[in-house]
Write a structure and sequence with these properties.
The radius of gyration is 26 Å and the shape is globular. Helix content is 43%, strand content 18%. Strands 1, 2, 3, 4, 5, 6 and 7 form a 7-stranded mixed β-sheet that branches. The protein has a 5-stranded mixed β-sheet with strand order 11-10-9-12-13, sandwiched between helices. The chain has 2 domains: 217 residues, Lambda Exonuclease, Chain A; 212 residues, 2-Layer Sandwich (Nucleotidyltransferase, domain 5). α1 crosses α2. The structure holds iron/sulfur cluster. Iron/sulfur cluster binds next to α2 and α9.
Amino acid sequence: MLSKSKYTRGINCQKSLWLYVHKNEERLVSEALQAVMSQGTSVGELACEYFPGGRMAVLEDYPFMESAERTQDFIEQGVQTIYEATFIFDDTLVAVDILHKKDGKWSLYEVKSTNSVKPQHIKDVAVQYYVLKGCGLDLEDAFLMHLNRDYVRRGKLDIKQLFLPESVFAQIVPLQQDIALNLGMLREMLDNDEPIIPMGGQCSSPYACDFQAYCSRLVPAVEQEIKVLSSLPEVKEAEVKAFVKKVQYPLHHLDFETIMPAVPMFNESRPYQAIPFQYSLHCQETEGGEIAHYAYLAESNSAIDPRISLIEQMIEQTKNAITIFMYSPYERTMINQMRRDFPVYAEELQFIVDRLVDLIVPFRKKYYKTETMEGKSSIKKVLPAICPDLSYSDLEIGDGMTASNSFLELYSCDNEEIITTTRENLLMYCHLDTLAMVKVFEVLQRV
Ligand code: SF4
């Protein structure tokens, strides 16, 4: 039997659906995708509070036929709100996140943990409408219920403000004529051999496909000329020297790590707002002098906003700096957001912003480049090109996304050993980010 998730998967890439059904063992769900999926589940559960007092059609380990029967029973009993309302039509199963009856008329609500309606959501709701209509349920409207990007948490979560239901009825009705055809085409495809479909844009958009590892293995190794990239720098000496000359000591190097919870965890934060929970700071009083290192890493306690202690410690530890290096504008954006959200610190945070200098500039403007940087200027490309002794590859946490997901996981972890190890790994990762900046600047100073 097909389902709405199989349908949307198959519409995006038939091979992905074929593999999902016939070679599921090849599926590789990355930690990042797992984190997105679990955020989606908690958002879905929270959205039920938008229509409180409903009945749940799907019980744990409940067979879908029974869920569909239970849904029909609820409808006949006059239940006004049904969560996971299950319907089967044309050998296709859908579970509607929320089915709600108002003034005698039904509407369906599909919950998404995004900040807006995306094109792929429309196909998802369209197939639900097709099945419900086929089952004889007359829908008055169909909504995509996403997070409200403008909602600012102040105190207890305000569910009515957190979610924004947007009608997509006008967009799904014209798609109905194609759905029966698409379902037939997908069924036929599943009865045949694995389709031959080359990798392309569909592998990463709208989602990163979980069969990429499998499909990449099948790409024939093309005999290609292996070009040896040079690590010899091409340097615009005058521009580099002018950049270096403007830097005044004491010099600090600052880097944040952030989490982006879908549902705001703290007051004065919005859905998916980046919340700094960690920083690393390398400080040098004089050129060629000793380098000190400081770090901040918040407790993973959802009752405490990590930003407050971070702001206070950062203000104290940067007060003597004349130049504060960041790498890319991210730190500036984060500090400006904290200025907005915590006006009591606005002046001191502005003082930090005024001293920020972006160390990426000489690389972005190609004052200093090597072939091994491959035209990129991110620290992950620049560092191995000019400081090959320093590397992220030996670290347990080697990128910002993993750092973010690891810290988020600590909020629901009570295993002391895991907590200690994860915190050590986070500290090592962020430390390397600012140490990399120190080393990169030393290379520029030697030009
Ligand atoms: S990796 Fe690409 S080609 Fe392979 S199944 Fe997924 S979407 Fe299709």
